[in-house]
Amino acid sequence: MPATRLTMRTEVVFIIGNRTDISTSTIDNWIRRAYQHITQSVELPEAFETVAQIMTIGTRAYTLPTNYFSVYTVRNNTTDLAVIQRSQSDYNALSTEVDGPVTDYAVFNKTFKVHPTPDASESIQVDYRKIFADLTTDATAHALPDSWDHPIIHLAAGFGFDFLNEIERARHYKAEARRYVREQTNRLAAELIDRNEAMRVIGGEI
Question: pLDDT, tens digit, for every residue of 115-162?
């Protein structure tokens, strides 16, 4: 079972020497930063979500979910074709007078803009990386498998030693966090390879 905020705080307090002169809110902020850093910098299966944006005729701009962080892939489910991502400047250069099936998109903040202007009620599938919800109470557990407890705790301890200006110990715990992250990502990659190999065997490719 994934660790709660209280459990992680207890571990971090122990690592930094059971100090009593640092507020609970400060330690919780280290944990929050560590959790956000890991979930936003590592490609985790738990981080990906999908939303179907239903196009409204004549409307080019749509609001993405509040937990949106970045786009992974976009597909027009109606035409069964991938939708091409454009930079803001490239998108702005596209004509607003053209309508038809959606072929291009751009994201500005959390606004999803499409081109051409939809002329039918198409379904555009957006696969995206999400922002994980904060650990708002001591009873709240993080949303990853429990094997991610150690990276979060060690990175939070690294931030703690930064706060205490103990630079060498900060480097040590951040390095430990990176090592744990590498172990977890290598395991995920191996599991993905195993699944792909199994699918090829089932499909008769091997």
Answer: 999 999 999 999 999 999 999 999 999 999 999 999 999 999 999 999
Rounded CA-CA distance 83/115 in Å is 9
On whether both 81 and 126 belong to a single domain, the answer is: yes
Q: Is residue 118 located within the same domain as residue 79?
A: yes
Where is 61: in which H helix or E strand? strand 61-63
DSSP state of 117: B
- Tokens of residue 86, six digits: 């454009």
Instruction: Indicate whether 113 and 170 sit together in one domain.
Output: no
Joined tokens for residue 198: 């199994």
Whether residue 18 lies inside any domain: the answer is: yes
What are 112's two structure tokens?
A: 């999803």
Q: Single out the residue of 149, 147, 146, 110 nearest to residue 130, CA to CA.
A: 110
For residues 80 and 95, membership in a common domain is answered with: yes
pLDDT digits (tens, 9 = 90+) for 49-79: 999 999 999 999 999 999 999 999 999 999 9
How far out from the chain centre does Cα 205 lie? 33
**Which residue, 61, 60, 105, 115, is CA-closest to 85?**
105
Domain ranges, residue 95:
47-130
Under a CB-based contact definition with an 8 Å cutoff, are residues 2 and 31 in contact? no
The verdict on 61 and 107 lying in the same domain is yes
> Of 130, 155, 184, which closes a domain?
130
**How many domains in the chain?**
2
**Alpha-helical regions (H) of the chain:** 5-15, 24-41, 88-93, 149-163, 167-202
